[in-house]
Amino acid sequence: MSPKEERYQRVYENIISLIGDVNDPITRMATIAAVLHHKIKQYSWSGFYLLKGDDLLLGPFQGEAACVKLPKDKGVCWTSINQQKVINVPDVNEFPGYITCHSETKSELVIPVMDFDNKIFGVMDMDSRTANGFDETDEKELTKIATIVFAQLK
Ligand code: SME
């Protein structure tokens, strides 16, 4: 395991231990956002957007206040929802229709979150102050962390 994977493993275990036997997805998302934000300093913002009918609304997050509702079918989060796949944006200036919530964000990684019935529930959104902020290890490890929201842990 690389040092980076080991660090993610510690973060994963920290989140699992904090969550304990609580199944509530809001509690889990709040814990994930806080641990990622405080343990992995290169991320400027970490949080969730939740699909509510036709709207994608701000969920639990850590970092500066962000856009509360994302214009439909625009930007990285909606693309991830619509394609139901991970979207890694190495340079936000190159992403057509990118929605700027914070001018300091240079790269972004968005991961779909599926519910207990494997239906799309929302996305986990990570922002970085540097371009190329997320590599394949980040994609793999953050995808694993995003599955905690609805994982059957006990
Ligand atoms: N940039 C995102 C919007 C959310 S913020 O980055 C917190 C997008 O294009 O969907």
Explain what you see:
A hairpin with a 6-residue loop joins strand 2 (55-62) and strand 3. 34% of the residues lie in helices and 26% in strands. With 154 residues, it is of the alpha+beta class. A six-stranded antiparallel β-sheet has the order 3-2-1-6-5-4, sandwiched between helices. It has helices at residues 3-19, 25-39, 75-83, 136-146, and strands at 43-52, 55-62, 69-70, 87-89, 107-114, 120-128. The chain is built from four helices and six strands. The longest helix is centred in the first third of the chain and has 17 residues, at 3-19. Helix 1 packs antiparallel against helix 2 and helix 1 runs parallel beside helix 4 (136-146). The chain is globular, with a radius of gyration of 14 Å. The mean pLDDT is 96.
SSE arrangement:
Elements: H1 3-19, H2 25-39, E1 43-52, E2 55-62, E3 69-70, H3 75-83, E4 87-89, E5 107-114, E6 120-128, H4 136-146
Antiparallel strand pairs: 1-2, 1-6, 2-3, 4-5, 5-6
Helix pairs in contact: 1-2, 1-4
Bound molecules: methionine sulfoxide (SME).
The site of methionine sulfoxide has 14 residues, from helix 3 and strand 6.
